[in-house]
Amino acid sequence: MGRTMGAAVMFQTFFIAILLPTTASALILNSTTRSCSKHCESINCQSVHKIRYGKFCGVGYSGCPNQSPCDRLDACCKQHDLCVGRNAANFPNHTCRYNLRSCLQQYLSTGAVVYQGSNCTAMTVQNTVMVALESTTFHEHVAPGSAPQAGGAPNPSSGMLIDRITSIVLICGVWASLLWAHELSPALRSVG
């Protein structure tokens, strides 16, 4: 009996120590605070929450005022940031999302070229930005009322988001533990 109970405790410990932090961190949007960008960057191009492309592409990442985009792809992101900034009271703005999608699709269909010195392909950046766009939609549904930052990019940190994700993960962990205990109960009865 002690061994099967030990297995259940080990499962719970594993869940709380390993799965909870990694699940929450995988869902939380990048919460680092940055000043605006004045330089063209191309880092983490395949990471939805860490991508930094050009001066304007990336969750919580935006160029400084009066900065020119690095290329047409970056220009799509700049227009999206400006749109979100103009419509801060109506966030998320579905028109801004639609316009970004259309701009990115048009960019790719007309012979996408990235700025000289970029470490990323146009297709990789486009795909990552599209997934990030969808994840901000998820973010707004999970943490309604989040507002854009002054630069126009969505506010990536939200205590409500963290609280809700943590609650969901804990509920799943309790449910899994109960299911695990139910599966073990015939074995426990036969031992006792």
UniProtKB/TrEMBL annotation:
<dbReference type="InterPro" id="IPR036444">
    <property type="entry name" value="PLipase_A2_dom_sf"/>
</dbReference>
<keyword id="KW-0479">Metal-binding</keyword>
<keyword id="KW-0106">Calcium</keyword>
<dbReference type="GO" id="GO:0005509">
    <property type="term" value="F:calcium ion binding"/>
</dbReference>
<dbReference type="GO" id="GO:0050482">
    <property type="term" value="P:arachidonate secretion"/>
</dbReference>
<keyword id="KW-0443">Lipid metabolism</keyword>
<keyword id="KW-0964">Secreted</keyword>
<keyword id="KW-0378">Hydrolase</keyword>
<dbReference type="GO" id="GO:0004623">
    <property type="term" value="F:phospholipase A2 activity"/>
</dbReference>
<keyword id="KW-1015">Disulfide bond</keyword>
<comment type="similarity">
    <text>Belongs to the phospholipase A2 family.</text>
</comment>
<dbReference type="InterPro" id="IPR033113">
    <property type="entry name" value="PLA2_histidine"/>
</dbReference>
<dbReference type="GO" id="GO:0008289">
    <property type="term" value="F:lipid binding"/>
</dbReference>
<protein>
    <recommendedName>
        <fullName>phospholipase A2</fullName>
        <ecNumber>3.1.1.4</ecNumber>
    </recommendedName>
</protein>
<dbReference type="GO" id="GO:0005576">
    <property type="term" value="C:extracellular region"/>
</dbReference>
<keyword id="KW-0732">Signal</keyword>
<feature type="signal peptide">
    <location>
        <begin position="1"/>
        <end position="26"/>
    </location>
</feature>
<dbReference type="GO" id="GO:0006644">
    <property type="term" value="P:phospholipid metabolic process"/>
</dbReference>
